[in-house]
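A common beginner's mistake is to predict each chain separately and then try to dock the pieces by hand. The better habit, illustrated here, is to supply every component at once so that their relative placement is modeled jointly.
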Amino acid sequence: MSHHDIVLTDLCYEYPDGTIALRDVSIRIYPGESVALIGANGAGKSTLLRHLNGTVIPMSGTVVIGGLPVVKKNLNEIRRRVGMVFSNPDDQLFMPTVAQDVSFGPINLGWSLEDVSGKVTAALESVGAAYLADRHPFRLSSGEKRRAALAAVIVMEPDILILDEPVSSLDPRSRRLLIELLKGLDQTMLIATHDLDMALNLCQRTIILSTGRVAADGPTHELLEDRDLLESNGLELPLSIHECRSRR
Amino acid sequence: MPGIEDKLYSLSRFERLSLEDTPIHRIDPRVKIVLTLAFIITVTSYDKYAVAPLLPFAAFPVLFAAAANLPGTFLIRRLLIVSPFAVAVGIFNPLFDREILFSIGGLPISGGWASFVSILIRYSLCMSAALVLTATTGFYRICTSLQSMRIPPVLTMQLLLLYRYIFLLSDEALRLSRARTLRSFGAKAQGIKSTGLLLASLLLRTLQRARCIHEAMSARGLQLTLPQFENPVIKKSDLILAVFILTALALLRFFDLTGVVGGLISGALG
Amino acid sequence: MHMSDALLSPVVGGVLWGICATVIAVSAEKLKKDSDTAKIPLMGALGAFVFAAQMINFSIPGTGSSGHLGGAMLLSILLGPYAAFLVMVSILAVQALFFADGGILALGANIFNMGFYACFLAYPLLYRPIAGDGTRRGRVFTAAVTASIAGMTAGAFSVVIQTMLSGISSLPFGPFAAMMLPIHFAIGIVEGIVTGFVVLTVHSIDPGISISRPLVFSVKRRKKALVLIFAAAVLIGGLFSRFASNYPDGLEWAVAGVSGGVETESGESGFFAASSLLQERDTDNPETTVSGLIGGIITLIAIFLMGFFLKKRAGKASASRGGHAGN
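With all components supplied together, the output reads:
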């Protein structure tokens, strides 16, 4: 059994006010896959993601990460295996310097301080952010913040990476840089995104979520060229496909 | 709103200054804290009429600031901008204490004026010592070294988070305040109700943000026993410096340098 | 209301630091028993909030001056006394270190004046009982205003006491208190109104935020608080009676002082004897004092010259190191 797979079975979740967020969601993500999770706002993407690192415990149904069910007693181990990059890097970079933030996870994991400092440097270098080590997050640009937040997660050497809107509000160059970075990672990846062109670029498989249900699950290039499927789920054709077709 | 912008600017200026690399910056933060405290205690231990004996103490903040390449004008501005309680209270000294202490060239100086000047000097000395400490150490390093001084982790961790989010929240407060001004059209935008609403909205955002931060911290393993960040070992040179400074402080305190210098000059002038 | 190093003697400052250190340690211990880790980011974020909120001024009706939120009461309502106190410690520390607002020696006094009374006395003994379950707006406002006034005036009064005990200021008790107390009374009223308003507004939007029970539940024993308040009352009352027996009415003092009919005090009993001792001068010889002054000024000039050269050297050194990377 692999450490690197995710199995959701009949997952259901309801908000305190009664709105149903997730309905009978069953998904299996295989080791090493890069999967895009797309859907209109309110479709349940973020709620789904929060089940994957134990921030939310399933109401009914099961979530099993690398063979470990997501229950209270497994939370620490699950959080070691699953690295989550949040949609708002300001919520994620909570220490006054980038280096200190990146070292937060490893120190909590109990690594020795010498190990930590080496790994922190390596992680920052791998995202091209070594020069940001002593900087205060407030003074970073959006792209720099996102790279720092990514470093803070990959330094913990997770088996699985979950990213929530990793490239939103980035300028084109920073966006390109981040996509290239993500391409170079070999963890199992699940990326929730509105950026369908990035999904085309990065993920072999796409899952469409609509009002809490899985509306479609298949190869990215198939799903993202199907205009009717996308539009019936509150989405549109990616720009690159749009352009291709309008040129014909 | 000039107040907020000025404070934000000042905070970020301090933060940049603290990243410089001079011998002063490299002194262990704990040593610097202890020395700053010793300095302040020495200065405040003088009686209320001490003026001349306090002046040589300026050596400490001035020379440290110079050696650390700190911008003099910025620091002086910080001293002047705060309308200090000390001045507001001290200015009454001349009013209530009129007994003549001495004269300078025929001009009688009352005890009240002497003590007022003493207050001003104390203020300058103590505040500049604190500013030099902050500017050469940086808040983050002060916090992590407090941890090693047995300050409870819940306090230091919370200090770090506070410092991290001060900029962000002040910025949000500034934006909210500007948005309010834009739609006030010259009317009294500063009423209690409108301020209360602004604060309430900022507070809601803050509480929401705190929940997200908690999620992020938990996702990276936050436990009840908070992480301890590493502290550099105190170097021999730091200890030697500390002994030197403490001795200098003691000597100055108990030996009237200015009297000697003044006596020499008056003697030389005949 | 920030007490300053310049007005403080090391003894008074040290004693207050000692008291604060104890209270800090106790608060941290109490919080350890709370197993909810969510309080830590909450405390940090709320601290940053109060700091930012203090920069938003509002005009105080009828006085033409402006004020800002102190924050201790709001924090106590949201976090409970122990956590709120620690957050106040942090805020005041930042103000002392970055804004020369107070001073490091005076930090202990400031924490006590602006944190202790509000969090450990006014909040549990005034706000909580009056506000009740927080369902009635009027009661919440009354609670907030009463508690804020109490906290503010107690704090302001303490500032007066600490200044007098230090003996650096010559302002007599009467005029000093007459200056401080009414102003802080008024500030307390406004702070109470703003606090009440913010708390009620936030609660109406998100009922999950409680006005009667803090977000961070902390154990509070009534009896201990009552003992504390009695001790404080005795202390304040004792000092007060000393003044009352030695001095005429505060107003008379103020008038007499302004009209110039005041002479410096000579050995009264108790408190004032202590402060007279602190006011002893180094020397009675005027000549020595003048030459001391000359010596002092010359020393100062020398210091600044040295500083100037040192800075030039330091500046060159950092330039040759390539300055600070990536700004």
